[in-house]
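Each lists sequence, tokenised fold; shown next:
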Amino acid sequence: MRIIGHIEHPEMKITVFKMDNRVSVKFENALYEQTYKLGTEERLSTLEGVRQWADAGLLAEVAACFRNMHRARMEAYGRIFPIDDTVVFEEII
């Protein structure tokens, strides 16, 4: 697998890969990543083709998915590490 390029974005890293004529695109932010396997579609075999595919609508959906991933992660933490509101700390002078 080799990197054929990057797509600039202010909030996420977008890397385009190619292996055996198959293209995949990885979207990353600080904590999460999503990979889309685009297959061998000839129109998406170049960096420019993938740039056109990754339009504003798709990028908005990817960002929404990152938010949902974060929500799911935090809810899972909450289930195993519940917040105890009854804990009282001693006063420090």
Remarks:
- Strands lie at 2-7, 13-19, 22-28, 33-39.
- The mean pLDDT is 93.
